[in-house]
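FAQ: What does the model actually see?

It sees only this:
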Amino acid sequence: MSFRIRPAEPSDAAQLVELARAVGAEPEGWLLSDAWPRSVADERRYLRAVRRSPVGAVLVAEEADGTLVGRLSLARDPHPASAHVADVGLIVAAGHRRRGVGRALLAAAEDWARRSRIDKIELHVFPHNAAAITLYERGGYEREGYRRAHYRRSDGGVADVILMAKLL
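And it is asked to produce this:
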């Protein structure tokens, strides 16, 4: 599989919204909602804002034909006492999992974090997402905690998550 990792562009908005909607619609419940909360126009505005901001980044995995198969978002913690920490969110298209896309996005995120003087990356993962947990653990992320009923799902239920982190 051939792909490259690059910063997201506002012109990627439609593909990124579609990617998130597709992953959100999977029956395993990988995302909190089956509906991506941003429209294409909102996503485009978000990507423009992130590109101008030193406190976050959105990276994509792009195939040679221009198809986006993965997305990783990073955001520095806004509190001054924890501004050295960034939160990560990762989405990989169903047909491209277990092919190095997630690993490559995480590596690029860690490079960005180091350049941005971030010393710790953390993320939340659902306890039932064994493949993602394995990916993160193989990448050096450790379990730091278990958050019960941490998120409200779009169906009205709640979701537990495992807090994982990596010191850079």
